[in-house]
Amino acid sequence: MQTVRDSDGETYLLVKRSAESSRVRDPATGAERYVDNEEISVVDGESPLATAASGVPEPVRRTLGAVRDDRSLGLLAVVVDEGPIAAVDLLDAADMCESDLHGTLTEFRAAGLVDEAEVAGQRGYEATPVAVEALGLLRGEADEGDGVGEDDGD
After folding, report:
1. How far apart are CA 91 and CA 131, in angstroms?
2. CB pairs under 8 A, 24+ apart, for 113-118?
3. With b meaning 16 or more CB within 10 Å and e meaning fewer, what string describes 105-142?
4. What is the pLDDT of residue 60?
5. What residues in the chain have per-residue pLDDT under 50?
C-alpha cells in the first residue's frame, strides 16, 4: 500500500495498480474508486498507515493515544461529564491509587485533553474542548447544528 495524491491535492491510499488505472481508498470514508494512473502520484516519505489514520478525527486520534484502558477512558469521561472537578473528588470517584491517577492525568495533560483548574479553592482538572469533542464522537453524538437527531417541531 502507498500514499498517493491526485491533481486536486486529495490524499488516498493506493490499494491496487494495473496498467491503466488504480484503485484508491479515501482514508476518511473508506470508499474505494478507480482512477486513471496519470491522475495520481505517489507521495514519497508519507506512511500509508499514517494516511489511513488521517481518516479518524484528530481529537479521537489524540484521545486514543492517551487512553490506555477502560479505567483511563472512564476517568476522562468523568472529567468531561462532571468537570471541572477537584483532584480529591477524582481520587474518591476513581478506583485508582493516587500515583496511577496522577500519572494518567499527566498523560491527559500532555495530550491536551485536560487542564488544571481551581475548583472550590482546590486543585482540580477540567476537560479541554478536544476531549469534549473526542468523547462526543466516540459516544456517537451528532455534531451541533448538523440536523441529526434534532427535533424541528414537525
Report:
1. 20
2. 113/62, 113/63, 113/66, 113/76, 114/76, 114/79, 114/83, 117/83, 117/84
3. bebbeebebbbebebeeeebbbbbebbbbbbbbbeeee
4. 94
5. 144-154
Q: How much is the pTM? A: 0.76
d(Cα 72, Cα 109) in Å, to the nearest integer? 13
Whether residue 86 contacts residue 120, with contact meaning beta carbons closer than 8 Å, is answered with yes
Q: For residue 75, what are the contacts with CB-CB under 8 A and spacing of at least 6?
A: 90, 94, 96, 101, 104, 105, 108
How many CB atoms are located within 10 Å of the residue 77 CB?
16
Lookup: cell for 19: 496498467
Q: Are 13 and 4 within 8 A, CB to CB?
A: yes
pLDDT of amino acid 83 = 83
Residue type, 79: V
